[in-house]
Amino acid sequence: MIDSAARGRHEPDDAALAGLLAKADPDALAVLYQRHGAACYRLARQVTANSALAEEAVQEAFTGLWLNPAAYHPGRGSVRSWLLGLTRHKAIDFVRLETAQQRRQHAQAAQRALDPPAFRGPYAAAWAGIRAQKVREALAELPAPQRQALALAYFGGYTQREIADLTGVPVGTVKSRVFTAMRQLQLRLAELDGEAPS
Amino acid sequence: VTGQAPDHVFFEELAAGYALDMLEPAEEQRFVHHADQCPRCKQAVTDYQQVTEALADAAPAAEPSAQLAHRILGPPDDHETSPARPDLHRP
């Protein structure tokens, strides 16, 4: 099974696995899928609100990596980040094919995606770990307009101009909301990693 | 404070937008051109990408079907002998 294959190779890290993909090693793809497939699916499911489309997006991301492993450059971030980005792009492509009315419904759902109630109840269990907890706290502390702009950008796939239109504020306001929110979250993560000045 | 500082706040804002893939094309081009020469902005993009990863983890729990793994990796029995056969060319 995939597990034993991974253990047999003393758990190579993601970058090493990406290197093995260049040699068309199918086990490397299997381990990457095992590590990141579910996270990619969750993201795509949130973006598309549709299981079949979400699976399609994940499939395209992983098969894209398999067919063209050279497209991943270690200098541009982690394999996980790259796979999530690819999945998100595919998912957003699907969403952009929707009708205007479907898009509006989607925008409403996306806008609420990072609101605190989502973290209570059944979702909380799936989102374990101190790091995740910190981000959750930081998200909850953000002013709602910042959190919503962030959610529209990340889960809705809207540009800053589209978010300005959707929320009825100037583009400059969207920019500063998103920047302030991202900075705040980044500082929390850095604090956690012991990198932030005290 | 030198004349560079306000510039850099501007580019740092763009770095956050870039990591979220929400910039308009002209702005994105401008940022990429700048970041190419600017280690600080490159670092900012890396930092903000970690934030977007954390946002992905904030998506509600959901599990893909077992069939998805098979479609990506090929039938389970086949892993040892044949590479995955990505099904990218479906009509």
Q: Report the biggest beta sheet of chain B as strand number plus sense, adding barrel if it closes.
A: none
What order do the SSEs of chain A take from the amino end to the carboxyl end, as H and E?
HHHHHHHHHHH
Q: What's the helix-strand series of chain B? A: HHHH
The greatest inter-chain interface is formed by: A-B, 70 and 45 residues
Report Rg of chain A: 18 Å
Question: Which oligomeric state applies?
Answer: heterodimer
pLDDT averaged residue by residue of chain B? 80
Record field, number of beta strands of chain B: 0
Cα(first) to Cα(last) distance of chain B is 59 Å
Overall outline of chain A: globular
Radius of gyration of chain B, Cα only, in angstroms?
20 Å
Descriptive account of the structure:
- The complex is a heterodimer of chains A (198) and B (91).
- Chain A has 198 residues and is mainly α.
- Chain A is built from 11 helices and no strands.
- In chain B, helix 1 packs parallel to helix 3 (39-57).
- Chain B has helices spanning 4-19, 25-35, 39-57, 66-73.
- The chains are: A mainly alpha (198), B mainly alpha (91).
- Chains A and B meet through helix 3, helix 4, helix 5, helix 7 and helix 8 of A and helix 1, helix 3 and helix 4 of B.
